[in-house]
Structures are given as structure tokens and as C-alpha cells.
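Quick one, T. Sequence first:
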Amino acid sequence: MRVLVTGAAGFIGAALSKRLVARGDEVCGFDNINDYYDVRLKEARLALLTPHANFRFVKGGLQDRDAVDRVFADFKPQRVVNLAAQAGVRYSRENPRAYVDSNLVGFINILAACRHGAIEHLVYASSSSVYGANRKLPFSVRDAVDHPVSLYAATKKANELMAHTYSHLYGLPTTGLRFFTVYGPWGRPDMSPMLFARKIFAGEPIEVFNHGRHSRDFTYIDDVVEGVLRTLDHVPVGDPSFDAMAPTPGSSSAPYRVYNIGNHVPVELARYIEIFEQCIGRKAEKILLPLQPGDVPDTYADVEELTRAIDYSPSTSIEAGIAKFIDWYRDYYRV
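C-alpha cells:
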């Protein structure tokens, strides 16, 4: 297939593009390579992809409607995976307009281009952050998600609503994936694995929010990419069991689905840090802090719907995943 991957220089986008070209798909990567975090890391990810004959790269931003329309017209993708977005829960408090430009304006540009390009399937990144103030665990796609606690989460919820509108009005098959704390080699520098590794190796103190008592459903990158690939190949149709008198957020009479993609095994932050200490061979000095505004105490993915749809089965334990990440970190940063 011809697959357009937006955010191809990003953590998940680069890993997904690598798997797509390996299985024989023709891939066009689209990314603005912004400086939200170290551009050199994004360029290094792309450098692993550009030698492949069936990978091409176009630099551009989602909010640039002309650039989006051009890449659709030139590449003529059959399917699209939209992973480009302004990421970060805490940063959304500092620079909210960046989230409107990329995650709302940019996403409507993608939806419109998919509609006019007769795209077979749009898979897009949502986030576990949409569960916001919900406290019932595990989080299920059947739960209402009407109480976001960050603007980032609100934009991801908005993406799901926008996608449903296009699925309903124009028959565009869309699938949203609510990612749960993805980690692994080539990960984002603003995420805890990179922050913890850098500081523990350097002998610097790490900031531990909520005194280490909150938990996250950490999901290894290889398990996530496998789930995205299977989802891309599984084009949704209208759900025959959908009941308009008792609707659930995860499906529709339109060709629309939303799934959780997580490890289904939450890990307390204190235990997470212990594994880092064991893999690095050094104890961490900790600065204990309260929970940050916009963060949630716990995340835990109910992946039953995704398992039923594509036989999704994450297999990487947190111990194995962190060990692989630390091995990569030592090699990449020459620690």
C-alpha cells in the first residue's frame, strides 16, 4: 500500500515507518521537525529511514493546508496514519495556541484531505489523557470522557469528535488510538525514561511527582507499532450492534472506532524508578513533589475491544522494556 505517515520524524512515527517499509509498503513521511525537543534526535530517526527506496520524506506542518494538500496530491496515499501533533500535557499550560494550530487546525486539514482523496482508512493518534478526571479503572472506551484536565487532552477528545463527523457525513473510515505512555529506544526527551536516564547517569537528582505514588500503563514501542499496523489493516465499518438509544463512545453506526492501546499492566512510579536504578546500576537521588496540574493519578488501559478486533496482545514486560531502552541509551549517547 501507499501509506502517508504524519509525524514520521517522531518517536512512534519513525518506528511505524520502519515497519511499514520492511513489509513492502511505500511510505511518505510528513513532519515539520519542530524544535519542541532536540531536532538532532528527529534527524537521526529519519536517517535510518531515508536509505530505503520505498520511503520518501516531505517537510511540512499540518496547519499548512497547502502543504497538506500537496503531499496528498503528489503521493496519492491509500491509507493515512496521523501521528503528528503538538505533544505534552504540561507544555499545553504554557503554550496553548500551539495545540490549537497543530491538533485542531492541522487535524481538520488531514480530515478534509482524506475525504477529497478518497482515503481507504485514516488511523490517528488520540491519547489516554482524554480520560481526564475519570477514576474508574481500568479505563474503557465505553466510558464517557467529558472531563479533560489539560488542553492537550481536550484537543485529542476533539479529534475523536471531528473524526466521527467525517465518518458519519462522508463515510470516511477512521480509527482513533488512545496511546498509553509509550516508551522505548528513540523515545522523546521530554518523557520520563529519557529524563530519568540522563539524570541518574549524571548523578543528578530526579523529580518524582506525587511522591512516586501514581501509576502509569507503560507500553513498549514494539507492542504499540504492532497494534498500529494491525489496526491500519483492519478497516472499520458501521457497528451493527450500535444502539443510538444507548450509545457508547468507542463505536458508531458510521465506519468509526476508538480503541485503547496500552500494556494493560499499570506500574507504580516508585517501582518504575527502581527498575531504572537496577538497569543503570546506580541509586537515584529523588526530589519528591506533588502531582502536577493537568496530570492524572493513574492510567490503566482496558484493551479488550482492541484485542477482540485485531488480536492485540502486548508482550513486553516493564523490566524487559526498560532494559532495552537503557541498552539503546548507553549506545546512542555513548554513556
